[in-house]
Amino acid sequence: MIKRPAAILSSAFLGCLLLASCSSIPMPSFLHSPASEAVVYALGPRDGFTSPLNGSLKPACPALVFENANFQLTSAHQQALNSLAQEMTKNKKAHLLVAGYTAPNLPADHARSLSERRSLAVRQRLIELGLEAANVQTVGFGNDFSPSGPSSDVVVIYRQN
Questions:
Q1: Among residues 122, 125, 123, 146, which one has the least CA distance to residue 41?
Q2: Which residue from 7, 25, 78, 105 puts its CA 20 to 30 A from 111's CA?
Q3: Of all helices (H) and strands (E), which one includes residue 105?
Q4: What values do phi and psi take at 98, rounded to 5?
Q5: Using the 8-state DSSP alphabet, how is residue 134 labeled?
Q6: CB-based burial label for 23 (10 Å; 0-12, 13-18, 19+)
Q7: Residue 142 pLDDT > 60
Q8: How is 7-64 classified by DSSP, letter by letter?
Q9: pLDDT band, very low/low/confident/very high, at 123 (cuts 50, 70, 90)
């Protein structure tokens, strides 16, 4: 069956009318963008944490350097974490952000996964040393970081002041 041009034109016109009337439907509240103060970057909705871009995050100890594609903690890492844990247990409300970084020569997916495994290993050790799990958050940046960030295989522990 062959449609007549008038029928095709009228159905196209009707479609345009329907689309135009959709603009008057109100947008559901969950589709609106959140207020800027409610956004917590890369950390999820944890109370007490702000954006890593915020200036209130300061390194809590020297960076922990990892070799190659390794994510196990060395004795040097253990000593640094023991010192940090002793200092941090005095302040029960202190929040830490454990950020993992990798070298830029790795594939992006592998780099993010490796950096997250490293930061999780550090977090787990800090919890074993007595820190509150809710106060230690992790993020694996991989090799997606700012030009001012570390560009090697390190984990940096930031303290929120």
A1: 146
A2: 78
A3: none
A4: -100, 110
A5: G
A6: exposed
A7: yes
A8: HHHHHHHHHHHHHHHHTTSPPPGGGSPPPGGG--TTT-S-TT---TTSTTEEESSPPE
A9: very high
What's the DSSP call for residue 125?
H
In the chain, count of helices (H) and strands (E)?
3, 5
Greater confidence (90 vs 7) lies with 90
Strand pairing report for 64-65 and 95-101 = unpaired
Beta pairing class for 95-101 and 136-142: parallel
Q: How far apart are CA 125 and CA 64, in angstroms?
A: 13
Compute the distance between CA of residue 63 and CA of residue 50 in angstroms, rounded to an integer. Answer: 21
> For 110, what's the count of Cα atoms within 13 Å in the CB-facing half-sphere?
9
Q: What is the pLDDT of residue 83?
A: 93
Q: Fill in the DSSP letter of residue 3.
A: P
> For the chain, how long is the longest CA-to-CA vector?
83
Other C-beta atoms closer than 10 Å to the C-beta of 17 total: 9
Q: What radius of gyration, in Å, describes the C-alpha atoms of the chain?
A: 25
Q: Which residues pair with 157 in a beta bridge?
A: 98
